[in-house]
TrEMBL record:
Membrane-traversing stretches: 48-69, 81-101, 130-151, 158-181, 193-210
Pfam families: Cupredoxin_1 (PF13473), DsbD_2 (PF13386)
Residues of the Urease accessory protein UreH-like transmembrane domain: 16-206
Lineage of source species: Bacteria, Bacillati, Actinomycetota, Actinomycetes, Streptosporangiales
Entry keywords, A to Z: Membrane, Transmembrane, Transmembrane helix
Residues annotated as domain EfeO-type cupredoxin-like: 236-320
The organism of origin for this protein: Actinomadura rubrisoli
Protein name: Sulfite exporter TauE/SafE family protein
Length: 327
């Protein structure tokens, strides 16, 4: 695939689906970038521009590294889970700042200036949007991982950079709209309805934290399974291998929980049909394994001979979990 095709593929992925999924994962970083920009109409725009510029640069560098070095530079599921948890805490910190919580305000502003007061000119944006924009490379969504896999397969620094540059540019319109809207809302509200906005940010923080815990495999086991689902999804082939079949749909995996036999060689088959969402990036946290699924088709994962227990899986952004119960 030539450079132009790689760029257009990345841009198409970002424009058609990547913006919404990445915005959900990286909302905390984006909110932090535009927070405290002051009431001027142009200031949120400058902050968002700096954020997106840094994001573009960081992802272009990552794409080049992936093209040259392959997947070795991609952090594993548990590392990404920890980064999502950190992003959630960052988002909660900004929410507490809006509510006037003293420690959060002092930590963010280093001077305890009230939220309703504009910070000094040099402190309005500073380097924070740049730092947070570059940090998005550490908190990828599921479709970012798909773009990164394409960068790996390009086998060139230029091709990898083209894919990731196109992807970020594709997501930029939605990120820009969200960022400017949030920034101007923070400036215009200036004490009015801030409690409502802070509640929304805290809810987003909770969702992001839950996603990180799922991705890291740190949530306690729970839930059961339907016998009918297991009967349809688990079979034994002629060689005696146990085959567990799951469908990756745009809104989750079906069935989400199945029961299989422990102590026998097992192969997991993941099937897709027109799937373009988070679930194409399939993660098994305990194995540190990420698998990018095709839009249409299937992938097979050799699970070896599992011991009794619960093998948890989740989409690579931590939104859609499931499990195989080996008994």
């Amino acid at each position: 695939m030539n450079i132009a095709a790689l760029f257009l593929t990345g841009a198409g992925t970002g424009l058609l689906a990547g913006g919404t999924t990445c915005a959900a994962v990286q909302l905390g970083l984006l909110t932090g970038a535009v927070g405290g920009t002051g009431p001027g109409a142009a200031r949120p725009v400058r902050a968002v521009s700096a954020f997106l510029g840094a994001k573009l640069g960081a992802h272009a560098v990552l794409g080049a590294l992936l093209g040259v070095a392959g997947g070795a530079v991609q952090p594993g599921p548990r590392v990404r889970g920890a980064l999502l948890a950190a992003a959630a805490l960052t988002l909660a910190l900004f929410a507490l700042d809006l509510l006037g919580f003293g420690p959060a305000r002092r930590l963010l502003r280093r001077g305890g200036a009230p939220a309703c007061e504009a910070p000094p000119p040099k402190a309005r944006t500073g380097g924070r949007p740049v730092v947070l924009g570059a940090a998005t490379v550490l908190v990828p969504c599921g479709l970012t991982l798909s773009a990164e896999l394409l960068a790996v397969t390009s086998r060139s620094a230029l091709g990898g950079a083209a894919v990731m540059t196109g992807f970020v540019l594709g997501t930029a319109p939605l990120f820009g709209l969200i960022g400017v809207t949030v920034g101007r809302s923070l400036a215009l509200l200036r004490g009015r309805l801030t409690a409502l906005l802070a509640a929304g940010l805290l809810a987003a923080a909770g969702w992001t934290l839950l996603s990180g815990l799922r991705l890291g495999g740190w949530l306690p086991a729970g839930g059961g399974t339907a016998a009918a689902d297991s009967a349809r999804s688990v079979r034994t082939d002629a060689s005696g291998t146990q085959v567990v079949t799951l469908w990756a749909l745009d809104r989750g995996y079906r069935p989400a929980v199945v029961t299989a036999r422990a102590g026998v060689r097992t192969v997991l088959v993941l099937r897709t049909r027109g799937t373009r969402g988070h679930t194409r990036a399939f993660t098994i946290p305990s194995r540190g394994e990420d698998v990018i699924l095709p839009v249409d088709g299937e992938r097979r994962i050799d699970l070896g001979t599992p011991r009794p227990g619960r093998l948890r899986y989740v989409c690579a952004s931590g939104h859609y979990p499931g499990a195989i119960l080996f008994r």
